[in-house]
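Blinded run. Sample ID left blank on purpose so nobody reads anything into the name before looking at the predicted structure. Input follows.
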Amino acid sequence: MTATTPNDVWVTGVGLLSAAGEGVDAHLAAFDAPDAPRLYDEHAFAPYPIHPLASVDMGRQIPKKSDLRQMEPWQRIGVYAAGLALDDAGIKGDAALLARTHLVVAAGSGERDTTVDAKLLDAISSRDDTEVLAKEILPTALRPTLFLAQLSNLLAGNISIVHNVTASSRTFMGEEMAGLSAIENAFRRIGAGQADVILVGGALNAERKDLLLGYELGCNLWAHPYQSVWQRRAAGGGFVPGSAGAFLVLESRTHAEARGRSPYARIASVLSDHALRSEPGQIRRTLGQLFRRTSIGSPSGPLALLSGASGAEPATSEELDFLDDLDADQFTPATRAYGNRLGHTVEAHFPLGVALAALAVKRAAFFPASDAGRVEDELDSSLERALVTSVGHWRGEGLALIERAG
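Blinded prediction complete.
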């Protein structure tokens, strides 16, 4: 464990919403179950399994019906999870503190209006003047200020409006790399003394035909009966999307101590890179280089590792090669692919992994293996630290080292 500094980055609030339910307790219960609970649906979007969002009353975190009406599901998920994190950190309702809380969001390009898309395609099938058609249909079919896909920064805007988070705001786009960049940005700003408290996270609504279409056009989805991410290679690989919102409140140690807040954990390192993936082995080498730059120190036996593996190939196989390298170097990773329980949540995936790692470190106990006998081994020793991996299904790699605070 590295020495502490005044600008140590502490996780003081966790807000989670997914197929497992809402909040810390629901997620700990889902991951502690001896047998993986069935949190996926193989029928709603067959042949593609998904992990649907658990039933939740959005009004508990978004009380104004007018706010709810103007948000699409991905925004509601994110705003709700952000509210849970603020509640958990003891910031909700503190106007002075909210005015100093910065916001960093990982977002996709927003949800398309599939009804309008279908209307245009139906009309185009019988007419050739597509430009005239678009001018006829779009002005009356779309809401003011929007286009066929909602703007990515609407999630950050709605978090600011609903929860009164009114310091600076940044939005990152770029699938898994967006979530990784958001956490890294918040971590580095606090470490450099540029901010004291930051709300950071992302959200995904996986229950969307437009999203599934986009990913399937790139041959990224798993279109078979459900299997764990480690078992999909034989059939070509692919990911199972999951609806989720994951937000964290990150604070400098001195700021949290001054307001009497204890942490879940400290973030010791966040590192990212972008391998070209033009030849086999580049992901493996990139992860190895990032690992050597962490503050983890010399080999010390079992290493709790929360893998963001998606099941997509060749990314997942190369991450397994990296895990073999760690084992050869005497780190002995005890790996958990949290996507096995909650699905692959793209922009929200890395914040989700960091949140789960912080929960595990806080209680000094890891989650049971969900793929026993194949990749995931049990970890019986007390948990002092956890490594979180992020390997994008298409691009982007990163690691975060989470340690017990103090």
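Unblinding after everyone has recorded impressions. The first helix runs from residue 23 to 32.
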